[in-house]
Amino acid sequence: MRIRVRGRKIMVTHKDLDIWKLGIELVEQVYKHTAQFPQAEVYGLTSQMRRAAVSVPIEHLRRCCKRRQERIHSVSVCCFGFPRRA
What we know:
The protein is mostly helical. It is built from two helices and two strands; from the N terminus they run E-E-H-H. The chain has one domain. Helices cover 62% and strands 9% of the residues. A two-stranded antiparallel sheet has the order 1-2. Helix 1 (18-34) packs antiparallel against helix 2 (45-80). The protein starts with a strand and ends in a 6-residue tail after the last helix.
C-alpha cells in the first residue's frame, strides 16, 4: 500500500496501519485478562478467546495480502497479455 506524504508516495506496511495496532492491542489485552482465568479453563474458554483475538489482525493481514496479489495479477495481465503467478 502506498500513501502520499508531502507530495511523495511512501510504502506502508501492515504494521503501520491503525487497524493492525488496535488488533495487536486487543490480543495483548485478551492474553492479559485470560491469564487470570481458572486453570480449569485453559483448554476451554481461555483458548477460544485467545484464538478469536489473534484472528482479528491475522484476517486483516490476509485480506491486505489478497488485495495486493489481485493488483499484481491484474497488472501482469494488462502489461504482458497473459496471467502470471505472483
